[in-house]
Amino acid sequence: MAVEELEAELPRLIEEQVALRIQQMTATLQQELETAHVRALEAFVQDVNVKLVKRISALETNITSQGEAMSELRGHLRRTEDNLVRLITGVERLTRDLPAGKL
User: What's the pTM value of the predicted model, to 2 decimals?
Assistant: First the structure.
């Protein structure tokens, strides 16, 4: 009778063990997928950070260069204004010094 009971119980026991093993494999697979997903996201974030740092660095370099160029232009502007004031002053002096009929 024990053999007959074992034969009757065997499909249920096999199904329980298979179901348990499938659950374990599913949990392992899900954990591996989550780990791979986290690694992929971390790699993506790292890549974005590296690119962002490079772009920010390039922008800072460009801003510095533009600031230097603006300072140089301000110097040229001041010299041009000074030269223009001297020119106008010289022309005014000439017109004042010329006799009235010679203009």
Answer: 0.55
